[in-house]
Each structure stands twice: as C-alpha cells, then as structure tokens.
Amino acid sequence: MSISRKQALQDVLDRKPRLIERPDNKISNYYGENVFNLTMMREYLTDEACDGIVDAMENHTPISRTIADQVASAMKEWAISRGATHYTHWFQPLTGATAEKHDSFITPTSDGRVIEKFDGSLLVQQEPDASSFPSGGIRNTFEARGYTLWDPTSPAFVWGHTLCIPTIFISYTGFALDNKMPLLKALAKVDEAATSVCQYFDKNITKVVATLGWEQEYFLVDKALHAARPDLQMTGRALFGATPAKGQQLDDHYFGSIPARANAFMKEFELECHKLGIPVTTRHNEVAPNQFECAPVFEEANLANDHNLMLMEVLEQVARKHDFRVLLHEKPYPGLNGSGKHNNWSLGTNTGVNLLKPGNNPKTNLRFLTFFVNTLAALHNRADVVRASFASVGNDHRLGANEAPPAIISAFIGSQLSTLLDELETSIKAGKMTPEDKTALKLEIGRIPEVLLDNTDRNRTSPFAFTGNKFELRAVGSTANCAVPMTVLNTIVAEQLNDFKHKVDARIDKGEKKDDAILKELQKLIAKSKAIRFEGNGYSDEWVKEAKKRGLSNLKNTPEALEVLNRKEVVELFESQGVLRKEEVAARVEVELENYIMKRQIEYRVLLNMSRNIILPASIRFQNGLLGNVGQLNAILGKDAKKYSIAQLELIKSAGQLIQDLHQSCGEMEAIHDRAESAKSALQTAKQFAEKLMPSMEHVAAICASLEEVVDDADWPLPKFSELLFTR
Ligand code: ADP
Ligand code: MG
Q1: Distance from residue 342's CA to the centre of ligand 2 (Å)
Q2: Looking at residues 253-281, what average pLDDT do you find?
Q3: Are 540 and 613 within one domain?
C-alpha cells in the first residue's frame, strides 16, 4: 500500500541532511581499502602466487590449483579482517543487473564447532543454481547447471559483510549466460588485432587495452514521495504527470550548487566508492531538477564496467541511508530530460600510448589516423549492430527526443578533421606516389595536432563523437550494462583492423612501401565510410531526411533494433571474431525481447490500474463535490443559482469529458494490449507494443496529466512532478 501524498510531503519537510565523518581527509589513505588489489595480494601472498595472478591478469594464463588455494585462503583472511562473513560469486546475468548468491565461510567440524574455510575450488567455481535467470533457451531448466567462474582480471572486494568475487556465468555446455564473458572475449580480440596493426609503427607494442570512462546520470527523489507513487515503485519511472510550472527552462540546476541533502548523500557515496577503488572524480547537477551525474577516471574496459555496475549498487544503497531513492531509469519523468551513460572509449598500449591521440610527428600521426579511420569504418560497416547494443525499453523514450542522440548512427569528428579526411581522400594518388605527393601528404598529416587543439565546437547531438583523444558513445542508457555496447564496439573495431591488416600486408607483399600501403588503404576507408560522418544538428528533421538519402538506418525502437541481430551477416560477425556463437546471439535476442515485453507490460498494467483505481475515482469525487455545490446553490438560491454556478458547471463538464475520455482510452489500450499479447511471436508482440501500445499508453498518460490540471490540488492523490523534483 502506498503512503498518501500528504503524509509524504510532511515527511519530506522534516528531513535533515545526514552528515558523515570522513575517516580521513586524504582520500589516498583509504582509497581501495575494501579491494583485494595487488598491494593487498603482495601483503598476503607468496611471490610465486602473486606472479601467477599477475600473469593470469596480463596474459590470460590459467591459474594452477595450488595458487588458487593460496589466493583463496589469503582472500578469506583479508576479507574477514574487513568484516566479511560470507562470500559470493558476483556475476552479470542477461537481465542487465548483477546477481549474487551468498555462502558463508563456515564449515562444521566433527566436534560441533565451525571453522572458516575457503579453498581454491570455491574461489574458482560456484554453482549458483540460478536457474531462473533468463538464458534464452540455451540452458534447459531441467539441466539447470550454470557455473560461475572467477575472473582474476577484476579484483575481489568486500561490500557490506560479503566478499564479492567477479565472475563469468556460463552454462554446463560452455555457452555464455552473461554479459561479462563476451566482453572479455571482445577485449582479447581487439587487443590481438590492434597489437598486430601497431607493429607497423612500433615493435615495442605488445599489448593494447580498450579503455572505458563512463559518465553516469541519475535522479534523486525522496523515499516518501517515491512510496506515494506506485508507478515509480513498480516501473522506476513516473508514467504521467502535469508539466511543472517551473521545469528545466531556467537551466538554473545545471552546474548550480548542489542542494544540502543531495550533497551529504554524494559525499557518503563517493566515500564508499573510493573505499571500493572506484575512481569517481566529478560530481555535478544535470539539466533537469534533481538530476545529477558522476564520472570516474577511465580504466581498462572490463574493470571500468565492473566498477560501473558496483557504482549503481552503491548509489542505491547509500541513497536509502539518506532517505532518497535513486532513479536510474532513462526517462523517469515524461517531458523532462532523461538520463544516459556516455561511454568514452579509446585504445591504450603497453608503452603508454593512447592510439586515438595524435602525436607530434608524422609517424605517430599516421598511427593515429590508422586507428581513427578504422574506427569510423567499423562504425560505418556495423552501424546497426551498434544501434542494437544500446536498445532497451527505457532508452526508447530517450533516443530521438530533443535531449539525447537520435536513433540514427553517425559520427561527429569536428570540422577540421573532416576537412583533413576530405583532403586525404583526394590527395593520395592511386598509382605510385611521387616524392612531392608524399611531402604534401606529410604536411597535411603533420597538421593534425594543431587541428585538434580546438575542440570547442563539440557537437552534443551526435551519438558517436570524437573528443580529441577518444570517442564518446553517447546513446547508451543510464541503466545499461556497458559490457553490451563495449562488446560490440571492440568486436567491430577488431574485425575492421584485421581486415585492414590483411589488405595492407597484401600490398606490402606486392612490393609497395609500408607507409604508401597504409595510406592507400586509409584513403579507401575514408571514401567508403563517408556517409557515417555528420557534423550538423542530429536533433533536426533535416537530418532524418538526409540520413535516409545517405542510406543510413533509423531503427526507431528496441524490437526493430534487436531484429538486426538475427541477420546472417551479424551472426557471422560475432562468430568470426570468436565473441559469441550463433546460439548465444539467438539467446540474447530472445532474452532482450522478453525483457522488453515484460517491462512494457508491467508499465501498461500499472498505468491501467492507476487510471482506473486512482485517477478516475479521484476525478469523480472532485466532480461530485462540484455537483453537490451546484445542488445546494439550486436548493438555496433557486432561479438565481444559475448565475453563481457557471464556473462549477464548466468544470463539471470539462472534468466529465476527461473522465469519459480516460475511461474509453483505457478500454482501447486494453484491447490493443490483448491483441499484441496474442501475436504469433515474441517479436510480433514486441513490435506491436512499440508501435501501437506505446502511443496508446502515451494518450492515456496525457489524459491523466490533464485531469491533474483540473482536479482540486488538495484532493489530488499523487505527488506532482513539482514536488518530486523540487522538494528537498
Ligand atoms: P565531458 O565533457 O564529456 O564530461 P571529460 O573530459 O570530463 O568529458 O571526460 C569524460 C570521460 O572521459 C571521463 O570519464 C574520462 O575518464 C574519460 N576519458 C578520458 N580519456 C579517456 C580515454 N583515453 N579512454 C577512455 N575514456 C577516457
Ligand atoms: Mg560526456
């Protein structure tokens, strides 16, 4: 049972910021204290065991049973000293969130006592019996064995009283049931492909890691107000509400001062993040009221992603301590800006070089150009797969709205780099290049660093923007597991780099000079991928038309985007790169569609219930009050009553019309839903949900919002947007 709006508002008025003491003013003194990192390992382990782990982390070599036993025992001792009583394999099922099954360290002894025990076999593998996690038919429930396997590249950590061990989750038959395993494979592939291309430029480069720096947006709302809205409780978003008189139009929240309660919350949540070794650095308000963002220093992509998943958990738990609830949903309030999670991505080498950062001589700039152009080419070849990688029920409300990138994939690279690519496209000669040609080229390539000094013309409307030394994938939703887009991005770049290497090598074999061969292949890629470059306003209608002319797809909703993954050439992409097998791709599509259908269906049911059981009765009560008033005016004033009941009668009529509309639209929505639900496949159901049910839900929501504007404020049963957004 929800609490009343009045009660909730009263509760909020009584709140005070929860102030905490930092253990120390110097973050470095407590940073990572809840992580079993290398420093801790050195303290607790023999050198031999440490070297084994480091080797496994860097070169993915298997860990021997003896070393696993040593690590397990050390981890247990350390974890107990940090207050842990239980351990869990922490994994990333396809539902998008993280999951865990806690076991205690204790083992009974024959004399009736217990001892704490944790050995290598428990560290390396656990059967979480998680048979109810979606697996898209890969794992039949009757043979419900799913295994979690330790990922030594991401350090274990203590959260609360539990030692959490990052793991992958696979079926008995070795199929990935999670989001981490494909990511690890994609990262290994891009390492291999990029390292081999790097050999053209620097033989010392033996390893390339993909880096990820995410930016997490979220909303805060008081827990009492949250409890007074069944839609927030059950769907994570407000399904309807009248636009507040003061919204985000003043832009006074953006970079404004952070309100006291939110500030106290952020301090505690940053403290917890730092103890967990999550390098969060920036905090600020976002565009919408009560919307915030935090971002860390970038890290290796697998670790960065684990950190983002941990951060979402920390956000929710710390928010509760401050009587807040955190809304991670992509669109918590219709009509206001939603939340995203920009994924900043680049490639870094073992020699400390960022491959997407231009250097200061033609040679390093050619290297930069190689990775830059190949990334654009990969995006161009595989735009639809990239689009599918951030498709989700919540993100459908955001993409294409005037706040988030459009669903059309394009890349923004800035006018100067655009000009440079255009020049390169025409100036590299088809045949043998003369020394003059080469000097001219070198001059052009040499100009890159100057070109990049001016980054001010950043385009906020592009889904994939080059920002000086990295690409920023902006379309990812705030609830997403970054592993999904990161798996795709690294896979397609690996595919493209392999192809590039192959072609350049072929030219060299035929006797072309290495640099000429590279330049000529780059030129081809520049010409071929031109359509994906767009510098203009991604929010404009002209762009939709222009993109169509260029042959770019505009996959407007999740079912349309997911359908792409069933295409033969997409399955081949994942199979050829060894990232996902055919069955795994199919399972993912099935799970995602199911997820989409279930979430939309829950929203539909909540909207129907709220309309019929909360909004209609409240509106009718309001109308009754007016009718009673008119009746009494008539009884007392007789003929004169007419002139004193004009307003009441108008209100009775306008409320009456909306009441009828709501009743009728609910019936229509129900019929649309039932038809969609009985469609012949999950894909058909999902498509009908997207194309028919969604607009019908939006219509019902709009009527509810109109009633909110008509009905007496004192009698309105739900917290209004103005209260959810501005009450502190
Ligand atoms: P913005 O204007 O979008 O907030 P910032 O310069 O603050 O841009 O950086 C945003 C994010 O980019 C940060 O999380 C940062 O860690 C990340 N970032 C910076 N360099 C890299 C890189 N080489 N690889 C991946 N992410 C990076
Ligand atoms: Mg950004």
Answers
A1: 6
A2: 84
A3: no
